[in-house]
Amino acid sequence: MTERCIIIGSGPAGLTAATYAARANLGPFLIEGFQEGGIPGGQLMITTTVENFPGFPEGISGPELMAKMREQAVRFGTRMNVDDVTDADLSRSPFTIATANGETYTARALIVASGAIARRLPLESEKKFWGRGISACATCDGSLPVFRNRELAVIGGGDTAIEEALHLTPFASRVFLIHRRNELRASKVMQTRAKANAKIQILWNKTVEEFKGEKTLNSLKLRDTVSGEVSELAVAGAFEAIGHIPNTGFLKGRIATNDLGYIVTLPGSTRTNVEGVFAAGDVQDHKYRQAVTAAASGCMAAKEAEDWLRDQGCEC
Fold first, then answer.
1. Is 140 part of the annotated catalytic residue set?
2. Is 141 tagged catalytic?
3. Opening angle at CA 304, ends 299 and 305, nearest 5
């Protein structure tokens, strides 16, 4: 049986798209993911507290928020399968989707909401303190009480790293920007802003060798890339800003992406260059990467898929 709408991904974008598609009687089938590109539920599943999602004034844990979103999508009739998509033939409609478990599905409309994963430092100590002082999103976590009026670190040297550092300055007592080279990769405008901010101190030619602490992070072991000298930096939190990887490998280049690998959508739309294929959430958004913006784009994708299916004469 050909599905009217298949959704790939179970983060805020995918689950919101599923809720809207189900309420529009599209009978959505959602493939949640399993191992590739992160666990079902996306990056919020490894986020301890979410304080900036509307409707939760006291905050909510990432896993609890995703459980509520999933429950809502299921309530309206979304069918789900925990599996990884390994291939998507978009050469003709209906589209053919293959999964790691050897299943094959076909769909008239496809919503890609497979998200992106943060690049992380390959250190065992990083795994230990992830979510306990280490984060990949200052916008999400920087204002938490545990980080307020404390010295914090941002690791990276591009625009994202500087944006993260600037975002932290209203909350932190000081922000150390740790970069492995002697010059930043960020744009000149962003470099000027960082250097002009009295709360930001740039540590040149430094790499993180170890994250240290007991129950939570309290310092970084740094190595100078020029002299080899080892030092220790006391911080209450570290934010990795070394890039993200959009989960688009299963598309095998069959859809337009930008030079960073993110799916390109039409301005003000979730439509891609392939008719009937829509993209929502972090897989097409390298700028905001917030749960609320992902959810909003999931709504847009479902509404646009509904309109597209109706224009194709699909009875929904």
1. yes
2. yes
3. 100
**pLDDT score of 180 more than 80:** yes
For the segment 260-275, the average pLDDT, to the nearest whole number, is 97
Catalytic site residue 5?
no
Q: Do domains 2-117+244-311 and 120-240 have the same CATH topology?
A: yes
Confidence of residue 208 (pLDDT cuts 50, 70, 90): very high
Angle at which helices 62-75 and 12-23 pack, to 10 degrees? 20
Active-site residue, selected from the candidate residues 83, 84, 141, 285:
141
Q: Looking at domain 120-240, what is its CATH homologous superfamily?
A: FAD/NAD(P)-binding domain (3.50.50.60)
CATH number of 2-117+244-311: 3.50.50.60
* Catalytic residue of the set 84, 137, 282, 285: 137
pLDDT digits (tens, 9 = 90+) for 33-51: 988 776 788 888 877 778 8
Choose, from 83, 140, 282, 285, the residue flagged as catalytic: 140
Domain extents for the chain? 2-117+244-311, 120-240
